[in-house]
Write a structure and sequence with these properties.
Shape: globular
Helix content: 40-55%
Largest sheet: 3 strands, antiparallel
Strand order of the largest sheet: 1-3-2
CATH topology: Arc Repressor Mutant, subunit A
Order of helices and strands: HEHHEE
Structural class: alpha+beta
Radius of gyration: 11 Å
Strand content: 15-25%
Length: 59
């Protein structure tokens, strides 16, 4: 999951869910809980007008 979030092309919740075999709500919980709160990582998100929201670990 962390590797996917470090890619230059970012990652969608759907891509992470498929790769991990998780439900989408589990991915969102992991982003907010494990990565953001517990590990203190900054999670950036971006929504384009014609595409899904994408996430990336940022500075």
């Amino acid at each position: 999951m962390i590797e996917m979030l470090q890619r230059p092309e970012w990652a969608t919740v759907e891509q992470i869910a498929e790769a991990m075999g998780w439900a989408r709500n589990t991915v969102r919980g992991a982003l907010a809980g494990a990565l953001k709160k517990r590990l203190g990582l900054t999670i950036n998100s971006q929504k384009s007008a014609d595409g899904p929201r994408v996430y990336r670990i940022g500075a």
